[in-house]
Amino acid sequence: MPGTQLIMPIPWSDKNSGLVEKQLVYKDQEEFANQLMKIAGNELREDENTRKQCLEQLREWIKKNQDIENCLTDDRFLLRFLRVKKFSILMAEQTLLKYLNFRKRFKEFMYGLDHLKSPLINNGYIFASPFRDANGRRVIIYNISKVDPHQFTGTDVGLAHAITYETLLADEENQIAGVNHVCDANGLSAAFLTLWSITEFATIIRWGEQSLPMRHKEINLLNFPSALKYVYDFVHSTIKSEKLKNRIMIHSSLNELHNKVDKKCLPLELGGVMPAKEMAELWKKELAAKRELLLSYDAMNLLSDKGIICRRNLPNEDNTGVGSLPGSFRKLEVD
Predict the structure, then answer these.
(1) Torsion of CA 234, 235, 239, 243, to 10 degrees
(2) What's the pLDDT tens digit per position in 153-168?
(3) Distance (Å, rounded) from C-alpha 235 to C-alpha 28?
């Protein structure tokens, strides 16, 4: 197991007397590393021998695949696809192809992943908390009120999400432990929906579900307006993985949210201990460290999507929280 790296918060004020409350859930490296090893073995079927053999096979397949151009082949990049598919070589290959195809199809927000050019990252719409939850997961915080539909576009939203997800996936700890989403939907309005057409919105959800090698362990929604429940129903029906659907929870109060998510992981505005602004600034430092890596992804290309196969006998879901929706992107249609 590679060495792990804790996310260490920087004390933001000498006046804060409760620094004890601001400590990470995992206080030492060894404890966190042991936790990750257990998750990798129990949930992902990962061990040193399996990891080595699968990496060799996946690299050889990429080398021989004439449809793939300039694909990264370092361990960390390839392991995201192997881990999310529990080291099934065929499914990892298909997920890699779909990932490259997703990048190509949605080039407007999947290329040029520069946080310095993302106004929604700059204004604190989306960031990862510096505190891991009790299961070692990074917690992604979303503040919908930061998205003015008259000022921003769907591309702006997509870019902010892509930069955040790719930055988290670049760390093996997050590939293994997965992520926890907390979305404050206060401010969500019908105008927000005009950022995308219905077809485009559904396509992004379906393709993203199949293509992005993330382990979505929890999706927590707070302050979701009852008048827009039809939006929730639409998204829920578009997701194919039943396991992922079951991980989406709507909370009617902060107390409900706190019963699911450790308060330490949340911004002060949601009952935590660190102001959202401070969390967002710490997140920008992480983004800066990964900036060149994310920009290097633009060299990768999928020359043809013919290798994305339609196999109706593939399982509809696995235990990763991502799901394995069968069918080719070339033939994907949105009802």
Answers:
(1) -110
(2) 999 999 999 999 999 9
(3) 39
